[in-house]
Amino acid sequence: MTNEILVAILSLAGTAIGTFGGIVTSAKLTNYRLQQLEKKVDKHNQFAERLPVLEEKIRAAGGRISNLEMAVGLAKTKM
Questions:
Q1: Alpha carbons 64 and 70: distance in angstroms, whole number
Q2: What is the pTM of this model?
Q3: Which end of the chain has the least Cβ crowding within 10 Å, N or C?
Q4: CA distances, 16 to each of 19, 21, 24, 25, 74 (Å)
Q5: By the 8 A CB rule, do 75 and 66 touch?
């Protein structure tokens, strides 16, 4: 086997190993970033589920405050 053929085979093997390593590393990074994005989406979804409950509690508290103001005589007159 001549030196040129041996160098070509070694170059091919090195290129193939490097390419495969790059693909694997890229896939791992992509999977990691997708997992982080899914965590953020889960946090957002939990917030979106709790928001209507908080709005209802605020509405109920506002109504109770209005009732108390009327009972005490501190009701504000609308202009």
A1: 10
A2: 0.54
A3: C
A4: 5, 8, 12, 14, 81
A5: yes
DSSP letters spanning the chain: --HHHHHHHHHHHHHHHHHHHHHHHHHHHHHHHHHHHHHHHHHHHHHHHHHHHHHHHHHHHHHHHHHHHHHHT-PPPP-
Which residue type is seen at 8?
Answer: A
Name the amino acid, one letter, at 52. Answer: P
Q: pLDDT per residue over 32-73, tens digit each?
A: 999 999 999 988 888 778 888 889 999 999 999 988 888 887
Provide the terminal-to-terminal Cα distance of the chain, rounded to the nearest Å.
Answer: 100
Instruction: Give the C-alpha separation, 63 to 79, whole Å.
Output: 20
What is the rounded CA–CA span in Å between residue 6 and residue 14?
12
What sign does the dihedral 19-17-22-28 (CA atoms) show?
positive
